[in-house]
Amino acid sequence: MKQLLNIVYLLFLLIAFAGCGKEQSYIVSSPDGSIQLSAEIEDGKIYYSISRHSLRIIDKSQLGFVFKEGNFDRNFRLDEVQYGSFSETWEQPWGEELTADNTYNQMTVCLEEKDGLKRKLSVIFRAFDDGIGFRYHFPEQENLAEFIILDELTEFAVSKEGKAWSIPAYHTEYYEGLYKASDISSLDTVCTPLTIELGDSLYISIHEANLKDYAAMNLTPMGKTSRLKADLTPWSTGEKVFAKAPFSTPWRTIILADKPGDLIVSRLMLNLNEPNEIEDISWIQPGRYIGIWWGMHMEKYTWGQGPKHGATTKNTKLYLDFAAKHGFSGVLVEGWNYGWDGSWSQHGDQFSFTKPYPDFNLDELSKYATIKNTHLIGHHETGGATINYEAQLDSAFSLYQKYGINVVKTGYVNPLLDKKERHSSQYGVRHFRKVIETAAKYRIMIDNHEPVMPTGLQRTYPNLMTQEGVRGQEYDAWSADGGNPPEHTTIIPFTRGLAGPMDFTPGTFNFDNPVFPNTRVQTTIAKQLALNVIIFSPLQMASDMIENYENRPEFSFITSCPSNWSKTVVPEAKIGEYVTIARKDRSTENWFVGSITNAKERMLNLPLSFLDEGAKYKAIIYKDAPDTHYKTNPYPVSIEEAEVTSQMQLNIRQAAGGGTAIMLIKQ
Ligand code: NOJ
């Protein structure tokens, strides 16, 4: 990949040797000078703090570990401090923009225990214009070889109380929760990204980057204060991480922004991952697809064998015909293989990933897909049985490769992997990475459901296209609480969405629910359309059954909407209330806008200043009709056309629970 467009590497390297006085502090600033990180060594312990525009954001916060043998957070003396700078612009194979700017100043604080084993530890701090990343590094050394981490002591002492949007770490399966706003001090132990409003014009989001052979980080308040501490997901035996020096932890990240939209356009997490490892990426292609899927969730079809089996050759051909007619890149087929009969999520070890059910002819269907110029999309539900899956991984991917299937959706429906370990534990992290790496060898793209929280691995392995780890559209089919409330999608772009693409699967057009009459889609149709722009995913599935798209003029927005972008801007947003995102298509000069509101009706006043000056665009606007309301009258959509320029502003009423989707076609 031609990713390094411009490198200015190591502008300077300065090594400062320092003594071991009582309190020493060392500072690194962001390239624009707005953010300052200070590391302090006091009484043998290391701390850091962060200011922005001279305002303290993170107070003095401790760093360090508890190992099985005891604490590794004290009795340190400074060995040396190294400073450096780096700047590059790299090309994103797919994404919300074509390129990412990766410019930072770095400070590495190297410590050594004053006496005893004299073990060494370094902390690497990077200051970007949009935030901070830091990680621990255990260098190769005589007295630290294999070690077991029982606790990571990293603190994030947020300088004042704030409003945090969170889901609890240990009581939410697969991160599929509704984010709740609360004071920092009253949080449970929560997942990251944790996004906090610290005032009208200050937003921070704490997460991690490059989670590799380590446990995922959660956050827990220390007492009833706004001081948070890292909480690593444990193994079933209680240990957190098994490691061997030399070893680096994931980066701990804090994005700092004036407004919520700036969180969305930060590429700090991606910048802290390693560059692309896949040489030829020509086979990695974003797309929009459909699936034999909603029918299972609505209980029209079954995954397992029987009279309602969904994944039949006949049905799949109908979906392939529809995909071909409307230009979809593929058809996901779930329930094609042995293992689904009975309570599959309890018996994941029964899944075969190579043996199709007798009424599903893989050979015939793959040929049919080729003739129709579309693709089958593979599915590997594991029921969380990773040992069974790993034993079949090579044969499973090689079968799909043989039949030209180059996207596979994986699934891990079981609260524990192999009935023992959590998805977000080091065990889970190791498994998920192994699947991505193996898939790359077979030139297969992955859509990972029930994953560990993403941390930017797609920069290194761009075949990791998208992931679930979010409460998606499927909850509108069967969730006992009635479905996703209208504010849900105005929150997730600022929380889970900061961790990477979300396979939310918007696009349900028929809200009737004969099986679960108290559950339904709580949006208008225009909002279903807008979500295709709001929620970024380079592979995005139109959720509904194909029959529900027939004779619906508004379906044209979904079939026209790209899933890969060269620019993204967020003209307005208030977390939990509304958000508007405009994205420029990667392969044309056209822009697409999505705007959504919560349960409150509102006016969208959108200046079109992001368009090219002096150019004319044809706007096709899909908006809520005058009497549309998500509860009482969700279906009416008005489709209007207008000629617009960058000087103009669109003023559009959005219904309660509604939204607007706009195509802007350059003339
Ligand atoms: C849960 C996934 O999120 C859903 O998309 C899938 O249909 C089922 N598991 C079955 O694998």
Q: What small molecules accompany the polymer chains?
A: 1-deoxynojirimycin
Shape: globular
Question: In which range does the helix fraction lie?
Answer: 10-25%
Given helix and strand content, the structural type is mainly beta
CATH level 1 class label of the largest domain: Mainly Beta
Mean pLDDT over all positions: 96
Rounded to the nearest angstrom, the radius of gyration is 25 Å
Please state the second-level CATH architecture of the largest domain.
Distorted Sandwich
Instruction: For the record, give the distance between the C-alpha atoms at the N and C termini, rounded to a whole number.
Output: 32 Å
Named CATH topology of the largest domain: Beta-galactosidase, Chain A, domain 5
Query: Which sheet architecture does the biggest sheet show?
Result: 12 strands, antiparallel
E-strand count: 39
Low-confidence stretches: 1-21
Tell me the domain tally. 2
Contiguous helical run count: 11
How much beta, percentage-wise?
35-45%
Which secondary structure elements does this structure contain, and how are they paired or packed?
Elements (H helix, E strand, L loop, with lengths): L3 E6 L4 E4 L5 E7 L5 E8 L2 E8 L2 E8 L2 E3 L2 E3 L3 E16 L7 E15 L6 E9 L2 E8 L7 E7 L2 E4 L4 E4 L13 E4 L6 E2 L2 E4 L5 E7 L7 E5 L5 E6 L8 E4 L2 E2 L2 E7 L2 H5 L3 H4 L15 E6 L1 H4 L15 H14 L3 E4 L28 H10 L4 E6 L4 H17 L4 E5 L14 H16 L3 E4 L15 E4 L7 H4 L9 H4 L33 H10 L4 E3 L13 H6 L4 E10 L3 E8 L5 E7 L4 E6 L9 E8 L12 E8 L4 E6 L4 E8 L1
Bound molecules: 1-deoxynojirimycin.
